Amino acid sequence: MHVADQFENVRELLLVRIGEITLKGLNRGRFVARLISNMKRRINDLGEFSIVQSHSRIWIHALSGNPPMQEVARRLSSVFGIVSISPAIEFESDWEILVRVVEEYATDVLAGAGRRTFKFETKRVDKSFPLSSYEVSSELGAILLEKFPEQLSVLMHEPDLTFHVEIREKTYIYHETIPGHAGLPVGMSGRGMLLLSGGIDSPVAGYMMASRGMILEAIYFHTFPYTSQKALDKVEKLARILSRFAGRIAFHVVDFTDIQLELNDKVPEDMLTIVMRRVMMRVAEKLAIERNAKALITGESLGQVASQTAEALMTTDIVVDLPIFRPLIGMDKNDTVALARKIGTFETSILPYDDCCTVFVSKHPKTHPSLYDAERAEARIDVEAIVEMSCEKISTKLIDLTFEEGD
Amino acid sequence: MLPEVLAVYVGLLGESGNNPASTHAGGLRALSHLDDAKRMISRCLDCSVDEIVFTSGGTESINLALLGSAAAIGRRPKCALATTGEHDAVIETMKALSEKYDFDIDFVAVTHEGVVDRNALRSALDEAPCGLASFIVVSNETGAINDVSTLTSLVRQYSPEAIIHGDIVQVCGKMPFSFRQSGLDLASLSGHKFGAPKGTGVLLKRKNCPLSPIVYGGGQQNNLRSGTENVPGAYALALALQSHVMRMDEQREHVASLRSLFLRSIDALRIPRVVISPDGASPYVLSIAFPGIRGETLLNALSEENIYISTGSACGSKRAGENHVLSAMGHDRETILSAVRISFAPTQSTDDVEHLVRRIAELYDRYAMHGKRRGGARG
Predict the structure, then answer these.
(1) Does A175 reside within a domain?
(2) Taking a contact as any Cβ pair under 8 Å apart, which residues of chain A between 347 and 376 contact chain B?
(3) Is the same domain home to A364 and A248?
(4) Which residues of B touch A276 (CB under 8 A)?
(5) Of A149, A179, A209, which closes a domain?
(6) Do A259 and A390 touch, CB atoms closer than 8 A?
(7) Contacts 24+ apart (CB under 8 A), B121-127
(8) B305: nearest CA in chain A?
(9) Distances in Å between the alpha carbon of B213 and those of B71, B90, B99, B219, B308?
(10) Within-domain flag for A407
(11) Residue A93 forms part of a structural domain
(12) In the A/B pair of chains, how many CB contacts fall below 8 A?
C-alpha cells in the first residue's frame, strides 16, 4: 500500500481471524500462544513483527524495516488456526484524517482497475467518535463517488469492493480477505507418524491431521532398485509441500530392499501385499514410539483397493497398538483429489514414478484375507527380526519450511 | 558426441559474426560452412543440396514436415495415414492435425514383427485415398526395418498425389539410405542420434513437394525455417554423419556382432528372455524382455553402475507398462513391464557386452520376483 508512505502515523498491519480457537475455554491462552509462535516461525526471515491477540483477533505490525505485507499474509494463510487475513492500514481516529486516508486508499485500490461496484461497512467501537457508523459509511461513499465518478457505483448486495472501516482507539481500513486453512495450531495435538507414499492420498491424510494440530513425521519405505531415486525425490517433495502447512517435518526413509527381497522369497504371492503392509505398520509403530508419536496416520480409504477392504484393514490394524488415524477412510476419491489440488500436492503425486505399493502388487491379491491367512503367511518369516532390521536401516532428514517454490 | 566432431564444433562456436546472412567476412565464412555442411549431407544421404533444411532436431523436422504439408495440402484429400509403430513426435503431431486442421487420421497396424502390415495399409488406402502419409523407417523401439520404397510405391498406387514423409532418425549413419530412391517427399533426422550435438536436425524436402513454414521471420532457408541458422550445429551434424557413413559397413558389422554376442551370452547364462526385436532388425537397438524382473528395476540397478539402458521411449515420462509400439505389436502388459531397450554402439567392446550380461544375470538372480534363472547358474 502506498497510503502508508503518504501520511505520518499511518501504518500497515494484518488483521488475522482465528475462528475455532476462540471457542476454547481455559486452554485458549495456550492455543493462541502456540499459534503466535507458529506464525513467527513462518515469517521471521521477513522482518521483525509485533504479533498480539486482542478482540478475538491477532494483530500483526511490522516493528522495523519495510517487510512486504502481502508476502507475510500469503505465508501466514497456510498456518493452521488462521481462518482469514486482511491486510489493513491503521491511523488516528479522526474524521479529517479518515477522509484523506480513504481517498488515498481508494486511489491505490482502483489504480489500473476498470469499473467497480462498492460499498462501505463501518463498525464503530469507540462511541465517542462524532459520527455514527451509518453516517461514516454514507459520507465516505459520497466522497468516493464524487472523486471517482467514472469508475465507481454503489451496490449494497455483493459489490466488487467492500471497504471495511473499524473505529476503535485507532481506525482501520481494509477491503481484502485472504482465506486461511482454519483448524488448530500445529503442536496442540501431539505428534503423528504419517506413512507417506508417492500417491495422492497419504499427503492429504497428513494435511488433514496437521490441520487438527498434529506435528507430522513421515516414514517412507524405499525399495531401490524396484523403485527409483526419482520416486524417493518425489516423496520428499511431497513432504516439502506439506511442510508449508505443517511446519518442520522429520522425514524417515527406510531402506526396505533386503526385507522386500526376503518377503518376495518366502511369502505366497497373493498375500505379499498384506504381509508387506503388516511389516510396514510394525516398523512405523516402532519408530513412532521412539519418536514419541501418539498415532500412525495413513491415507487409506475403505474399499479403494484390495488392501483397503475392511478385512485387509483389520489384518494390518491388529499388528499395532497405537491408534491409526485414517482421515480419508470415508471420503470419496474425487473429494480427496480436490483437496490434493487445493494444497498443491496433486501435480507431484501424479508424477509417474512407481512406489512400492504399485510395484509389489500381486496379480490377484486376496481381497478378503482372514487373520489366519495373514498369520500363516507370516509363519515362514521371522517378523521380529525383520522389523528390527528395518529399524536399523532408517535415515532421517528434517524437511523445513520452504517458500521458494510457488503455490 | 564424437571427439573429432566436438573439437570442430567448439572451434566454430568461438568464431565471431558467424551469421550466414551477413555480408561481412565472418558472415561469408559462415555461409561457406553451411554450404560445406549441405554438400557433405547430400553425399551421405543421396539428396540434392537444396533439399536440405536445418532444424533443431527430429521433433521439429517432423512437425515441420507434417504441419507444413497439412497447410499446403491444396486439393489433396484431408486424410493422413501413419502407423501404430511411430514415434510420439509423429503420433502427437498427427493428433494435432486432426484437432486443429480437421484431418482424418488413420493409424495403420503393425505386425507382431513391428513392421507396417501391408494388407492393413492396402485396405486403408482402398477405403479412402490419403493426402499425407508418414512411416517410421527403422523403429526406435525395436529396430524393425520397413522397406521404405515398397511402402511409398504402395501408397502412390492408390494416392499418386500424396505427400509421403519418412522418419529416418534411426537410419542415418547406421544403414545405407538414398533419399532419391526412397520415394519419400520428406524425411526427418536428428543429429544427436549419430554423435552430433543435441539441438540439431535436418528435414529433407523434395524440390517440388509443397510445404508451408511453421516458423515465420527473416525468411532464412528458402523461407521454410526462419531464424538464423545454427552454423556450428549444422556443420557438426554433417561431419558426424559423414564420419559414420564412411565407416558404416565396418561399424554395422561390429555392432551386429555385439548384439549377437549379447543374445548368445544371455542364453548361455539361462536368463529367461523374450526377444521383442524381429529377425533382421537394425542391430543398433535391441528390445528384449526378461520375464520376472521389471524393466525399470533393471534400469535403476544398472544406472547405479553407470550402465544406461532404457525402458519404453526415453523421451516420455510414461507409467510403467505403457508402450504404444510394443502394445501395437501385440505384447501383453507383463511383457512390456519387463521389457528393456539396449542400444549397441560402435564404441562398445565385447568386454563391455560381456560385463553387461554378467550384471544382468546377477541382478536377475537378486531381484526377479517369484522365480530364479533356470538352473540358477551364477554368471
Answers:
(1) yes
(2) 351-352, 354, 358-359
(3) yes
(4) none
(5) A179
(6) yes
(7) B121/B81, B121/B151, B121/B154, B121/B155, B122/B154, B122/B158, B124/B81, B125/B81, B125/B154, B125/B155, B125/B157, B125/B158, B125/B159, B126/B158
(8) A225
(9) 9, 17, 19, 9, 37
(10) no
(11) yes
(12) 36
Distance from CA of B334 to the nearest CA of A (A): 10
CB nearest to B320's CB, from A224, A269, A354: A354
Sort B308 into a burial class: Cβ within 10 Å, 0-12 / 13-18 / 19+: exposed
pLDDT digits (tens, 9 = 90+) for B268-285: 999 999 999 999 999 999
Collapsed DSSP state (helix, strand, coil) of residue A235 = helix
Question: Searching chain B, which residue's CA lies closest to the CA of residue A352?
Answer: B319
ipTM of the complex: 0.77
Whether residues B301 and A225 touch (CB distance < 8 A) is answered with yes
Structural domain containing residue A111: 3-179
Domain boundaries, chain B: 3-246, 248-368
CATH number at residue A76: 3.30.2130.30
Residue in B305, B363, B370 to test binding to A, most A beta-carbons within 10 Å: B370
Closest chain A residue to B366 measured between Cα atoms?
A: A261
Query: What predicted TM-score, i.e. pTM, was given to this entire model?
Result: 0.84
User: Which of A120, A154, A179 is the last residue in one of the domains?
Assistant: A179
Contact A82, A178 (CB under 8 A): no
Q: Dig out the grid coordinates for A367 from the structure.
A: 481381497
Strand pairing class (B79-83; B104-108)? parallel
- What are A165's strand-pairing partners? A122, A173
In chain A (407 residues long), the average pLDDT of successive 10-residue segments reads: 73 91 80 94 91 91 86 94 96 94 94 93 94 96 95 94 95 96 94 95 97 97 92 94 94 95 88 91 97 97 85 91 97 96 93 67 72 91 94 94 53
The answer to whether position A185 is within a domain reads no
| Contact of B272 with B334, CB cutoff 8 Å | no
Looking at chain A, how many residues does it have?
Answer: 407
Q: Which of A 245-274 lie inside 8 A of B, CB atoms?
A: 261, 264, 269
Contact B366 A269 (CB under 8 A): no
Looking up residue A330, the CATH number of its domain turns out to be: 3.40.50.620
Closest residue by Cα to residue B124 from B142, B110, B144: B110
Q: Taking CA atoms, what residue in B is nearest to A361?
A: B369
* Cβ-Cβ contacts under 8 Å, B297 against chain A: 225-226, 359
Residue A34: CB atoms within 10 A of its CB come to 18
Residue B53 · residue B211 · CB < 8 Å: no
Closest CA to A218 of A398, A351, A403: A398
Distances (CA, A) of A401 to A246, A257, A398, A404: 9, 30, 10, 10
The pairs formed by A153-157 with CB atoms below 8 angstroms and a separation of 24 or more are A153/A115, A153/A116, A153/A117, A153/A118, A154/A117, A154/A118, A154/A119, A155/A117, A155/A118, A155/A119, A156/A119
Domains held by chain A: number: 2
State residue B375's pLDDT score.
46
B21 CA to chain A: closest CA distance, Å? 42
- Suggest the residue from A227, A354, A360, A361 to mutate for an interface test with chain B (most B CBs closer than 10 A): A354
A286: closest CA of chain B, how far (Å):
27
Q: What letter would DSSP give residue B20?
A: T
Taking an 8 Å cut-off on Cβ atoms, the answer to whether B319 and A352 are in contact is yes
Residues A175 and A200 placed together within one structural domain of the fold: no
Looking at domain B3-246, its CATH architecture is 3-Layer(aba) Sandwich (3.40)
Tell me which residue has cell 509462535: A37
Nine-digit cell at A364? 490377484
Question: Which among B296, B317, B370 has the least Cβ separation from residue A264?
Answer: B370
Tell me: do A106 and A197 sit in the same domain: no
| A230 and A377 housed in the same domain | yes
We find that the CATH architecture of domain B248-368 is: Alpha-Beta Complex (3.90)
Let me know whether A12 and A135 are in one domain: yes
Work out the widest C-alpha separation in chain A, in whole angstroms. Answer: 86
